[in-house]
Amino acid sequence: MNAPQHASLIGQRIPKMDAPEKVAGKTRYIQDLNLPGQLYGLILRTERVHARIVSIDTSAAKALPGVRAVLTAADVPIHPIGVNKDNPPLKGDKVRCERDEVAAVAADSLEIAQAAIKLIKVEYEDLPPIFDPRDSIKDGAPVIHAAKPDNVAMAFDYAHGDVERGEAESDVVVEDEFTLHRVTHCCMGVSGVIADFEPVSGNLTLYSNTQVPFLHKREFAEVLGMDPSRIRIIQPPIGGGFGSKLDIYPFEPIAVYLAKATRRPVKLIFTREEEFIASPTRQPAIIRLRSGAKKDGTLTFRTVDVLLDNGGYTSWGATIPFVMMQTFSSLYRVPHCRYHTKAVYTNNPFAGSFRGYGNLQATFAIEQQMDKMADALGIEPYEFRLKNAQNAGEVTGQGMHFKTCGFQDCLETAAGRSGFVEKRKALGAAKGLSGVRRGVGMASMLHVGGGAKIYPSDGCGTILKLDDFGHVTIMTGASEIGQGSETVLAQLVCEELGVPMSAVTVVNNDTDITPWDVGVHASRTTFIAGNSAIGAARKAKDKILAAAATVSNMKAEEMDLKGGNIVRASDGEKVMPLAKMLRQLHFSDKAELVMTTNYYEPPSVHQDKGFKGDVSAAYAWATQVVEVEVDTDTGIVKLLKVWAAHDVGRVLNEMGIEGQIEGGIIMGQGYALCEDMPVVEGHLVNPAFRDYKLITAPEIPEMDISFIETMDGEGPQGAKGVGEAPSICMAAAVANAIENATGVRIASLPFTPERVYSALKGRPL
Amino acid sequence: MMSVETEINFKLNGREVSLRVPATMKALAMLRDRLGLTGTKYACGEGECGACTINVDGKTVNSCLMYAVDCDGREVVTVEGLRTPEGLHPVQQAFVDHGAIQCGFCTPGMIMQAQHLLENNPTLTREEAKRGLEGNICRCTGYTKVLDAVEAVADKNGRCSHG
């Protein structure tokens, strides 16, 4: 009789481990948690956009029964937070945007806190505001932060090659300006925190939605003047992240201040309106892009000038030029490139990190211009891209080394499956400005797929233990934000240890237990935390098989772990049950438990001062083709179908990766077609789902998803990160499709009926 | 800020409940804060996202818009009431099996609406499912796997393969 065959879990459609609890309504998000004796925190926001605070009178609020604390900047240490340390959690001297926090209340009930907030009187003296980032850098512009008199929050300059030489060699030069709008994450679970400060021990427990618990812990210690070892961060299941929870925000230290002042736990949860007003946004951008090519279609140079609207304070949004420059320098082979970016202060809402991290903006510009250049050269845009596409083995001008690269496969697959070239030709021949027209458009992208070495370490730790019954507990620093990381980590460990998914528990949400990780960002978790978990599992396996060798007549390397057993590697024949071996180890004379640790640091490097270096251990690629219908009488653009080809390294969980790509495509569709946060004189016009339009079920396109498996040598089982990639191409592809349908190219987003109609009538908004 | 309290009696997930609620209290707040049923979610508070969807007398309602007092005499089902003694409701199981969940915050409302659609039209088409779920926002999944799950139940209910 043959030994049982144990199918690999890699590539299978495995349901998320947390799904049964989630469908039953049993999952307790931060909104669902309550601590004994808890108070309710609430923040008074300014509603002014640029003003000096003359006085704050909290006496009436303090006198209200049930109010336990009312705090202003005068009551707390002044310790600004954020990437530039320019954002005091409570504002004392002046306010710089609508969301600014000027006072906070803790009360016995939310109703009392709401009543108290209304009793706080603030006197202001308005200051001249700036709303257009182009005005921020004009001579004599009002100064928003005294420490930055030029209003420049951050600036980046990058270059490789010799742009002047590249331009001299060009037969065609194209220059465009693109304008990108402001959107926000719209996590279904609003922001919130519970701060529990224990006055006797001095311990602070924070129940937080953060995506970066270990960086958060360090920053909290700084802000609060606390010993970091007294701070414990527990992450309840998170109702959506998408990059919104990468930074520390004022409401978090404010909740701690209130908890310290009252010596009671304080719960502070946003309303949806507050979520819109007081959450970070994607960075609005004005991109001037100039590129050249030779007659044969070889790219010669690019120069890029980007102006980012930073808003009133600096969060991670100001650092998106890191990612944008990768696309400009390295998506295609371009021998000469120069890139300049400024993120400038305005009195608008401030921008943070958002899935794609600047790459949606950069790709919108570059991939529209690729179409324009192809037209100018008389080359089919698909062929033009293919000619300049990167290949495996190349090292770009920015120092990125593409050890695996599925770009050309992505292009060929998306074009082939959609019939892109023929379709674009046929629809383009019928393009026009009347009736309903159809068009197809293509865009491609490059994004980090093996972490991004921005912090001193880009690593992740794992602690792994097996109990006497063969049950595995994985303690990982990597957070689950809905993307399915815990399921993928469990799969990878099961694959090594030959146990079923039901034999695994993942602990991933408590800084007192889990080892360090830099955070959920840069599409890094599967790659970095996956490699870390595999390493821990292999150490455990080595230990188990070495022990098995002492009680069997086989060498360790002749055995394997499969189906919950120690088996003979050659034929799968059972040697002994895994659990039995574990118990023997545990209860032998030299008693031992199988527990291992592993820290994985990817073999990437920090960029030098010129932003050059192989910053990721692997790179992800994708090409997406879209087909749209444009109603020229109304300006309504309907997305009919998307063909998406993604270099994912290897599919680990087919259902999970499809979910990432489908969700990302629809998020990209929203960015392209309907999501918009118009800010008029610093005030958000539409802080509600009623007016901020998200894609709903009837609007989704048909999707055809292809996986290009390049089997990355460094990736866990060959996989690359894919979380951000799917939303990046959509806006550019839709823009190209609108042009194919109508002959009109629209250089600003979103493609709302109003904007499209105006453009078709020759009066662009 | 005390408002008048009213006694209400209704059937919740198959059991009779009786409690006093302020006239201004919404059904969502009653379920979450008074009755400890936190499966029903707040995500917008103005009936725009469907995360708070419950079933009242066989119809789905945004519980953030409905007053708690209006539950009096009604039969209310929340996501916690779908589970049968044998395990997950077939719609819940289909959401698990078809990957219809990521962060899961919209999931209870989405499932309540999907269950309602399937109860009234057991063999519904994908297009009908799309229309029926228009009021439920999901930021993670792009809806595709949600629709796959709903269709899988419709198929089990005997829908012909062409839908």
Automatic annotation (TrEMBL), chain A:
<dbReference type="Pfam" id="PF20256">
    <property type="entry name" value="MoCoBD_2"/>
</dbReference>
<protein>
    <submittedName>
        <fullName>Large subunit of molybdenum enzyme</fullName>
    </submittedName>
</protein>
<dbReference type="GO" id="GO:0005506">
    <property type="term" value="F:iron ion binding"/>
</dbReference>
<dbReference type="GO" id="GO:0016491">
    <property type="term" value="F:oxidoreductase activity"/>
</dbReference>
<dbReference type="InterPro" id="IPR046867">
    <property type="entry name" value="AldOxase/xan_DH_MoCoBD2"/>
</dbReference>
<dbReference type="Pfam" id="PF01315">
    <property type="entry name" value="Ald_Xan_dh_C"/>
</dbReference>
<dbReference type="InterPro" id="IPR008274">
    <property type="entry name" value="AldOxase/xan_DH_MoCoBD1"/>
</dbReference>
<dbReference type="InterPro" id="IPR037165">
    <property type="entry name" value="AldOxase/xan_DH_Mopterin-bd_sf"/>
</dbReference>
<dbReference type="InterPro" id="IPR000674">
    <property type="entry name" value="Ald_Oxase/Xan_DH_a/b"/>
</dbReference>
<dbReference type="InterPro" id="IPR016208">
    <property type="entry name" value="Ald_Oxase/xanthine_DH-like"/>
</dbReference>
<dbReference type="InterPro" id="IPR036856">
    <property type="entry name" value="Ald_Oxase/Xan_DH_a/b_sf"/>
</dbReference>
<dbReference type="Pfam" id="PF02738">
    <property type="entry name" value="MoCoBD_1"/>
</dbReference>
<feature type="domain" description="Aldehyde oxidase/xanthine dehydrogenase a/b hammerhead">
    <location>
        <begin position="24"/>
        <end position="128"/>
    </location>
</feature>
TrEMBL record, chain B:
<dbReference type="Pfam" id="PF00111">
    <property type="entry name" value="Fer2"/>
</dbReference>
<keyword id="KW-0001">2Fe-2S</keyword>
<dbReference type="InterPro" id="IPR002888">
    <property type="entry name" value="2Fe-2S-bd"/>
</dbReference>
<dbReference type="InterPro" id="IPR036884">
    <property type="entry name" value="2Fe-2S-bd_dom_sf"/>
</dbReference>
<keyword id="KW-0479">Metal-binding</keyword>
<dbReference type="InterPro" id="IPR001041">
    <property type="entry name" value="2Fe-2S_ferredoxin-type"/>
</dbReference>
<feature type="domain" description="2Fe-2S ferredoxin-type">
    <location>
        <begin position="6"/>
        <end position="82"/>
    </location>
</feature>
<dbReference type="InterPro" id="IPR036010">
    <property type="entry name" value="2Fe-2S_ferredoxin-like_sf"/>
</dbReference>
<dbReference type="InterPro" id="IPR006058">
    <property type="entry name" value="2Fe2S_fd_BS"/>
</dbReference>
<dbReference type="InterPro" id="IPR051452">
    <property type="entry name" value="Diverse_Oxidoreductases"/>
</dbReference>
<dbReference type="GO" id="GO:0046872">
    <property type="term" value="F:metal ion binding"/>
</dbReference>
<dbReference type="GO" id="GO:0051537">
    <property type="term" value="F:2 iron, 2 sulfur cluster binding"/>
</dbReference>
<dbReference type="InterPro" id="IPR012675">
    <property type="entry name" value="Beta-grasp_dom_sf"/>
</dbReference>
<keyword id="KW-0560">Oxidoreductase</keyword>
<protein>
    <submittedName>
        <fullName>2Fe-2S iron-sulfur cluster binding domain-containing protein</fullName>
    </submittedName>
</protein>
<keyword id="KW-0408">Iron</keyword>
<keyword id="KW-0411">Iron-sulfur</keyword>
<dbReference type="GO" id="GO:0016491">
    <property type="term" value="F:oxidoreductase activity"/>
</dbReference>
<dbReference type="Pfam" id="PF01799">
    <property type="entry name" value="Fer2_2"/>
</dbReference>
